[in-house]
Amino acid sequence: MAAPVTSDQLESARRAVERAARRFGDLLADVPDPAAMATRDWTVADTAAHVATIARLYTALVRGPAEPLPFDGMDGLRTATVDTVAVLNEVMLDQFRERDPGAIAAALRADVADVLKASADAEPGEPVHWLGGARVPMAGLLAHLLNEIQLHGRDIARASGADWAIPPGDIGMFFELFVAGMTRNGLGHLLDSTAPPPRRRVAVEFRSRYMAPVTIVLQDRRVFVEEPGGDVDVRLSFDPPALSLMLFGRISKARALLSGRVVVRGRRPWLLPVFMRTVRFPG
Question: What does the pLDDT look like over 213-224, one tens digit per residue?
Fold first, then answer.
């Protein structure tokens, strides 16, 4: 059963998205070279455009499944998995042709304002239809956009020689409202894979000072949430930005662990890689 999402959590996510989008726009205003590579495949301008496409897509998703999508060729949205989401990213990038940082920032600000307006009177836990048939609470949708802005803001800042500190509370919302919230509401096809599932139940407790603790369980091919305090195999204590950077391939697992910002304990810590092969993120 879905845990309640409070009005305070929704409002916190809304305020954080507004702040992050404004900060992202300020970062783009000072970009020295939009053609510099920010990731392995994307320039600074491409990376900024990607964030803008997410915000534009969410102007439709926040209004419900009957709202027309702002991009063509998105038939794979409802059947997407974490392994095919990159295809949808490229479909949207191909149609969002703007690569001037100032124009991208203006588009992002306008679409974020629209998302915030549309979500202002929403029920905090109202399920939003997301990729792969997953269902995300309204506050979780905003928390996902927040993580995108923060993660790619860091990509652009590193390529531009700028500073970009990621607030831990922002990414705590990503894990609590988006990851755990989506797991509670239903993951759809998002984690579908042809790989065989683990032979045993694996339970991982996620614990951080920036979110309520949550236990996510992998059993057969099902992934679900249990209340904390039960039998777990792995206890994962973490600083939210460090875990996000690790899961999305920005820092290595060794660096995250050696820094002490991600700590793995429990009776069976060796089961964490087994868990993460199924409960995975786009790298």
Answer: 999 999 988 999
